[in-house]
Specification:
alpha/beta; single chain; about 45% helix; 9 strands; 7-stranded mixed sheet
């Protein structure tokens, strides 16, 4: 299994390094979105470097799916403070993550570690990939370790609160930027070189439920391993965090994302959607 994983990693890296944006209309359109949004948010990156970053971004996405399929073979480590998975089994929390690095790996790691989760996904992702994810979880012996909640559902907030009450840790992608119709949980914040509109509902629900709100990001390292970064943890009911609002908590986690993306833009998978979801 491990040898197959390494072989597939090598194949992906070789194939994507020569990926041609002139091969077909879809490839060209994808690069056009990537380079336009990258230039908008990080204008200091020379245009001549965009194609190389695009190749790396394409590889990162394919490697993320590979990491998901072979998650038992993935080498990973904590960067900085760890997040106590054992504690999550008895004290559920809300985890805010992003489509950065190997962005699917954390879900499998939590379930594999025995942490029951409720994964917040878009209606489109649930329709296309939800059944396969749940089937994979069950086939690996994790039972009902994961349930899916549709982010756009008008009762999503209530479903999240019920999941927390039942002992599940809720995992949501902040940069998915999906939610029920309405603007009361929208907030504008600076991100890289632009201002973006984001949803703060996940942090707000954690505060309302009285559970911790953890930022957990996955980074791809130069040696091929993954680093899990518990960048911030907010305990809204503690004396030290009484001045922390859901807006500030969300701002700080986006700042953590920006710190990664500014150094290695290819790690973020959402360059193709920046104009659609955030502006």
């Amino acid at each position: 299994m491990y040898k197959t994983y390494l072989h597939e990693k090598q194949r992906i890296q070789q194939e994507t390094s020569s990926y041609s944006v002139r091969s077909d209309a879809a490839a060209y359109q994808k690069f056009a979105l990537f380079t336009t949004n990258l230039g908008l948010a990080l204008p200091n990156i020379p245009l001549r470097q965009h194609i190389g970053l695009f190749h790396k971004a394409i590889a990162n996405r394919q490697l993320s799916f590979l990491d998901e399929a072979y998650h038992n073979s993935v080498s990973w480590h904590w960067e900085g403070e760890t997040l106590d998975f054992e504690a999550l089994k008895s004290q559920p929390a809300v985890i805010g993550t992003f489509h950065v690095g190997s962005y699917r790996f954390v879900n499998h790691l939590l379930v594999r570690s025995g942490v029951p989760i409720a994964l917040l996904v878009s209606a489109r992702v649930k329709e296309r990939q939800g059944a396969a994810f749940l089937m994979q979880s069950q086939s690996l012996g994790y039972g009902d370790g994961c349930e899916l909640i549709t982010a756009e559902h008008p009762m999503a907030a209530l479903q999240i609160l019920r999941a927390i009450k039942s002992g599940r840790t809720v995992v949501g992608y902040l940069d998915g930027n999906r939610g029920a119709t309405g603007t009361h949980h929208l907030h504008t914040l600076p991100f890289l070189g632009i201002d973006i509109r984001v949803r703060i509902g996940l942090a707000h629900i954690a505060q309302r439920a009285g559970v911790p709100f953890h930022g957990l990001l996955t980074k791809r390292c130069p040696d091929g391993s993954l680093a899990l970064w518990n960048s911030h943890s907010f305990f809204f009911d503690s004396v030290d965090n009484q001045c922390i609002s859901s807006i500030l908590a969300t701002d700080l986690l986006y700042a953590d994302l920006a710190a990664i993306v500014r150094e290695e833009p290819w790690q973020w998978d959402h360059w193709y959607y920046l104009h659609e979801y955030f502006l």
